[in-house]
Design goal:
The chain has 112 residues and is α+β, with helices and mostly antiparallel strands. 39% of the residues lie in helices and 29% in strands. The chain is built from four helices and six strands; from the N terminus they run ββααββββαα. It has a six-stranded mixed beta sheet with strand order 1-2-6-5-4-3. A hairpin with a 2-residue loop joins β1 and β2. It is elongated and about 50 Å long.
Length: 112
C-alpha cells in the first residue's frame, strides 16, 4: 500500500490496524518526525510525539531508493490492544519473584 510517498508493508498495515493507529498520524510521523535515528538493520527510525503519546515508524530503503515502512507502534499503547495486554503482563512478570515468574511462564506455555 502506498500513502502519498510512504510505502507501507502488509505487516505494517496489520500493526496499524491492530494497534488502533490512524494512517495520517503514521504519515505525519514519517514526514515530520521530532527525532530520527539509524536502525541497526540499515533502516531508519522516525519518532513523533503527539499530545500524550509517541508514534514510531521503522522504515528501510528499497532498491528504488524509496522508504518502506516495515513496523509501526504507539507508546503508550491504547487500552485493550494486544500491545497493552503484553505490556501489563511484562510489568507483572518483572515485579514477580522467581516462583511467580515460573508460574507465569507455565501458564503461558499452556495458553492461560
Amino acid at each position: 500500500m502506498q500513502y502519498f510517498d510512504l510505502i507501507i508493508t502488509k505487516h505494517a498495515q496489520e500493526q496499524i490496524a491492530a494497534r488502533g493507529l490512524k494512517i495520517n498520524e503514521v504519515w505525519e510521523t514519517f514526514k515530520h518526525p521530532n527525532r530520527t535515528s539509524r536502525n541497526k538493520y540499515s533502516g531508519q527510525k522516525f519518532e513523533k510525539e503527539f499530545e500524550n503519546y509517541k508514534i514510531t515508524v521503522v522504515a528501510i530503503q528499497n532498491p528504488k531508493n524509496e522508504l518502506v515502512a516495515k513496523s509501526v507502534w504507539r507508546n503508550p499503547p491504547l487500552p485493550d490492544t494486544p500491545d497493552a495486554k503484553k505490556k501489563a503482563m511484562w510489568k507483572k512478570y518483572n515485579k514477580s519473584g522467581f516462583f511467580g515468574q515460573l508460574w507465569i511462564q507455565i501458564k503461558q506455555q499452556f495458553g492461560f
